[in-house]
Design goal:
The protein is an alpha/beta fold. It has nine helices and eight strands. InterPro entries: AB_hydrolase_fold, TEII, Thioesterase.
């Protein structure tokens, strides 16, 4: 396995590359590292290593898509020499969407498919109140309510102080995102979500249809916003047919 500044790569000549983007506060390598063992051999799973976590913990996390997305385009471009796809969960879905737009603006090769998970269609307004500017105690309470941040981190003061800046940065990026209308993509979008996700109902996922001229597919799994952990096998089973 080769660690590059921005992705984890383990194949020299794959038939496809699946770039995987993490949710807020998450590390792509820890979330997606087992996917390589399950998806077809020709598919190289490439977790995207964002600043502020894992191997890049000492680097400050980005707080807005306008700064991060062009950097992603530049850094990932050398690995877009074979057909590629994007998978993003929650914040990762937003990043993969905006990265695809950036590639189109630069007249570069686009992914052959987007897999977006647990994020409302980007043109829809937020329903929940922002939490990124809350005082620490309230912010930590919000993190606990939302789930996704391990309780071991929330209860460990030293770990919490280590990860809090990245969590705040990620929530800032998501909550200050300003959607700008552009033409829909001419590429397929597969949309996934949790059946009991209180923040992202099925109707918000169905609204992704506005972002593609092709019919989207939508599939719901048991669980809430972070269904992909408990339903990983089912999610990957749903993704595999796209590589046949």
């Amino acid at each position: 396995m080769t660690n590059t500044p921005w992705i984890v790569s383990n194949q020299s000549h794959p038939s496809n590359r699946l770039f995987c983007f993490p949710y807020a506060g998450g590390g792509a390598n820890s979330i997606y590292r087992t996917w390589q063992q399950i998806l077809p051999p020709g598919v190289e799973v490439c977790p995207v290593l964002l600043p502020g976590r894992e191997m890049k913990l000492q680097q400050p996390a980005y707080t807005d898509t306008a700064a991060l997305v062009p950097q992603l385009a530049q850094q990932l471009l050398p690995y877009m020499n074979v057909p590629f796809q994007f998978f993003g969960h929650s914040m990762g879905a937003l990043l993969s969407f905006e990265l695809t737009r950036e590639l189109r603006r630069q007249r570069l090769t686009l992914p052959t498919r987007l897999f977006v998970s647990a994020h409302r269609a980007p043109q829809l307004p937020r329903r929940s109140e922002p939490v990124h500017s809350q005082p620490d105690a309230e912010f930590i309470h919000s993190l606990r309510t939302l789930g996704g941040t391990p309780e071991a981190v929330l209860q460990n003061e030293e770990l919490l102080q280590l990860f809090l800046p990245t969590l705040r940065a990620d929530f800032t990026l998501c909550e200050t995102y300003n959607y700008q209308p552009e033409e829909p993509f001419n590429l397929p979008i597969a949309v996934f979500g949790g059946q009991t996700d209180k923040d992202i109902p099925a109707s918000d996922l169905a609204a992704w249809q506005a972002q593609s001229t092709r019919p989207i597919t939508q599939q719901m799994f048991q669980g809430g916003h972070f269904y992909l952990h408990n339903q990983q096998a089912q999610l990957l089973q749903a993704i595999q047919p796209y590589y046949r």
